[in-house]
Each structure stands twice: as structure tokens, then as C-alpha cells.
Design goal:
Layout lengths: L1 H21 L12 H17 L8 H4 L3 E3 L15 H26 L8 H26 L20 H18 L18 H18 L5 H11 L11 E3 L10 H8 L5 E3 L1 H9 L5 H4 L35 E4 L1 H13 L8 H16 L3 H8 L13 H12 L4 H11 L22 H6 L1 H11 L14
Antiparallel strand pairs: 1-3, 2-4
Amino acid sequence: MKKILALFLVLLMFSACKKLGDLNKNTKDPITVTGESLFTGAQKNLFDQMVNSNVNNNVFRLFAQYWTETTYTDESNYNLTTRTIPDNHWDILYRDVLKDLDESKKIVTTTTYGGDASPNVKTNRLAIIEILEVYTYAVLVETFGDIPYSESLNIDKPLPKYDDGKTVYKDLISRLNVAIASMDPNNGSFTDADNMYQGDVSLWIKFANSLKLRMGLILADVDNTYAQTVVESAAPGVFASNGDNARLVYLSAQPNTNPIYDDLVASGRHDFVPTSVIVDMMNTLNDPRRPFYFTQIDGAYLGGVYGASNDFTSYSHVSDMIQQPTFEGMLIDYAEVEFLLAEAAARGYAVGGTAESHYDAGITASITYWGGTSADAATYLSNPAVAYTTAAGTYQQKIGTQIWLALYNNGFEAWTAWRKYDFPALVAPPDAASDIPVRYFYPIEEQTLNGTNWASAASAIGGDVVSTKLFWDKF
């Protein structure tokens, strides 16, 4: 009897230990992750970072002087240290986007797809991952200058060296060329794992060419011959309508709502108003996009003072349309592409059409995208202050002003366009910590953890300060 009791106790203890051991297992998380799910997550993380207005992560709408703050004005006055904003931008793009894309690429490469899946489906998926990697690295170069590239994402290189920004940029364009050439629009790709184009390879090819067009023109002032070759090869394959836009449509329920909704509505905060800089210009031009950009206050569009403390109730607000949870985020749109083609034509590149025809198409695309009509666009273009032949200044001023107005919902692209064209003539506020930043300084964590490589990069670009112009920003 004692032996039976002892055996029973041993079995009971073993059973209890087994059950206790089960408590260490996370039954809700998958043991393995698919390449497709990593791609989906990286894609959303990229859009969220480029779209959001949370001042901890993205202050590009403030740099472009579209919005200004109400109570806390640090970021409108270019204080980037209190919230370590450059660190957050860097970390999100490297850790939450590029690293996940890199892992997705590895898994897709080693996965055997059964059924009727053509080998070209895998090739298309890998090319799409490559395109998003190129876009993300390009944003990092355009933000910081020299960046970790050849040794980035390598677990064996915890302190990666920084590579020359121009060299990286040209390599990214080469990678785009390879990706474009490898894609077959007659085969599928990610299907519902792709929330941008739902796996439509033909649209991904257009996006890649549109990105290539933009990147080629970034280099035009420092390597015109190379830029012309890049731009002329990209131009035939770029966006042809607003239906091609690189967009992500958000959902109505959190956590998949538009980050602007999270920041402006769900948070219950009233931190931003549109600036008098953009509102006054659009009022002067009688711009038909005003009701889609702003609300009215006392029957008029009235912008706040940039960099000052502004009473939220005294000025126009961001339009209700933009604050909707399902409002789409954008990486590149058709209007921007047409303005880029206008620049290329003005430079004498063979891209088809004239600077004026592409300029007109860019304005029309923007107005109709936001909800205006072709007639609205025609009326706007008849204004002598808008029409390409009569508007003031060089092509840089004409295009720079109108692309800035069109990029209202894409702060990073607007900031980059302003740095490239130097128009419109933005002015830093009186209490600013610096002139308008033309780059982010490197993350503080890089200075402390990767100091030797950081110091070398800082020296190479001419100083790790926000006033250092990057290699492509020559004027």
C-alpha cells in the first residue's frame, strides 16, 4: 500500500511539474513567423512613421510650416533634444521597418511555396521587399546624410560603420533597377499581405519608377549627367493617375486607425493649428483646396502664428476629412510625380511633355485628389500668380511653391522638396533654437554607443548639426 501511495505521489508531482512548466509557454504567440506577416508589419510601421504627427516621432509638418503648435512650442522652434526625436525616427526605420523587411526577405527566400505558385511569385515578393527597403534607406539618407548601410542589420556588427551618403544613394538606385527588371506583372506577389497595392505587381513597378524619378532628381544638382540618365529611364514607367498613388488606407478601429486620428482626435488633445504661412498663401491664391485642408473660423480661413503659442479656439483647424480614422497615408502620389517631371523638363531632360504641361498636370492631380473638380483646377491655373508662364520667379520657385502646396499631407516629402527647391521662402520663428533644420542630427545613442563611427561620419558631412547641408542640398 505504501509503495502504491509513493508511486501515486511521484506521478502527482510529475503531473504538477508538467502543468507548471506549461505556464512558461506563450500559447498566444506563434512559434514561427511567416515572411508575409513580417512584410505586412514592416509596411504598416513605415506608413505610420511617415504619416503620424506625434511630436516624439515625426515633426516634418512643423518643419514644412504647415502646422504650428498651441501650448507646447518646442518642436516648432526646432528643439529636437527634449524628446530625442532623431533617435526615435532612426530606431523606427532601422528596427521596425528595415530589420523586419530583412527578416521577411530571408524567410521568403527559403520558403517553398506549393500549389500552382509560379517561381516568379517569389521573385516578385523579393523585389517588392527590396523596393520598400530602398525607399526606407533613401529616407534615412535624406534625413541624416551618411548612415550605416553596408554593415547595418548585421548582428555581428553591433557598432556599424557609416557609409558615404551619395555612394549609398547611387547603390539604392542600382538596387531599384535590378528589382524593376526582375518583376513580372503577369504573376502575383503578396496578395492580401500587401496593404498598399494588394499584390498588384504592375503598380509596384510604377511605384519603383516613381521613386527612382524622385531619387534621380535629388542628385541633379550634384551629378547632373547621372541624374539625367536615371530620370529619363524612369519617366516612361511612373504614375499616370491618382489611382496609382502609393497609399495605405487605414481602418476604422484602433490600433489600425490613421495616426493623425490618434494624435488629433482619440488623444483628446488640441496641440496643432494650421499656420498663417500656408493659409495666407492659399487665401491670396483663392486656392480651391482650402476646405479640404482646413476648417473655417468665423467664416474665414485663419492660420496661427508659426512658432508662437496659439489659442486653439481662435484659428482654423485641420479639416475633418484629414482627421478621419480611415483617412489614407501616402508615400508618393501622382501630383508629386508630375511636378518632378516638370522639373526634369525644365532641366532639359527628355521625359515627354513640357515643364508647363507637367506643372499643370501636377496642380490638377492635387486638386482633384482632394475633392475639387477639373473646372476648379482650370480656374486656379488661370490665375496669373499660378499659371506657369506668368507666375513669379524661376522654375524652382514656380514648382517649389506649388509642390509645397500639394504635399500638405506628406510632411517629409514637403520638407525635402523645400530643401531642394528653396521655395517657398520660409523663415524661422524669432525664438527658434536654430535656423530651419536641413537635416536631423544623429541619434544621441549613436554618439554614446557607437562614438568612433559617429565622430567619423560627423566629420565627413561637415558637422553633426541641423544646419549642415547634405551632399545633395547645394543651394
